[in-house]
Design a protein that fits this description.
By secondary structure, the chain is an alpha/beta fold. The chain contains eleven helices and seven strands.
């Protein structure tokens, strides 16, 4: 069998270098929720506009993000290819190897809650049956960029004040940005304390979109 050419490994190493920065991974988490301008991304990640722009250029050259112009603004979105799968694999590997990551996740999401999380396939079926209330606990901004069909926008910081809007006789499913986002697990725990029957989705909006499922905006 012929060995793979050296360029194959050079390309992989170059991509790894591009992704090997915490700020770039943080930026990608927000870009995965929908198109954003550099100024807004800088605000969300607590970076300067110049620093954010520099990181985005690295990601763009690698094809990880793409851009389009909207008047004077340049909007960033995820590039083509299995980017979400790559990010998910990195997260899974970090969880496997780093005890600190597992301990951090355990603070917000118990082992029992992980077992009780609802899969994407089950959610599709339950939405078809109209047997659940779907709760988006991300920010209103992220909800406006795109959300799961029929989801109610109720950011985590508004949850306690809006409990009266939620049904006591129907199961609630909370979701947020993805499997490493703790907003939905925090919301799940809070709602259970008030007697609601609630589960969290084991993924988020980017995974839903990547599966080719419909999104409302």
């Amino acid at each position: 069998m012929t060995d793979l050419p050296q360029q194959h490994f050079i390309d992989i190493a170059e991509l790894a270098r591009t992704l090997g920065h915490a700020h770039r991974l943080h930026l990608l988490e927000h870009i995965a929720q929908g198109e954003r301008a550099v100024e807004r991304l800088a605000e969300l990640c607590g970076l300067s506009v110049a620093n954010t722009s520099q990181h985005l250029q690295h990601l763009r050259r690698a094809g990880v993000v793409q851009t389009r112009r909207d008047g004077k603004r340049v909007l960033y979105r995820l590039g083509g290819g299995p980017i979400l799968e790559v990010l998910a694999a990195l997260g899974q590997f970090a969880e496997h190897n780093r005890l600190a990551v597992r301990e951090l996740l355990a603070d917000s999401m118990s082992a029992q809650e992980r077992l009780e999380a609802m899969s994407r396939d089950e959610l599709v079926q339950r939405l078809h049956e109209q047997s659940i209330t779907l709760l988006d606990v991300r920010s209103h901004e992220e909800y406006a960029l795109g959300h799961l069909p029929g989801a109610i926008s109720m950011p985590l910081d508004e949850l306690q004040q809006r409990l009266a809007e939620l049904p006591q006789d129907q199961e609630i499913v909370a979701y947020c940005r993805g499997p490493w986002c703790v907003l939905s697990s925090t919301a799940t725990a809070a709602l259970r304390e008030h007697g609601f029957k609630v589960r969290r989705l084991d993924s988020g909006l980017p995974d839903w979109q990547a599966a080719g499922l419909p999104v409302e905006a």
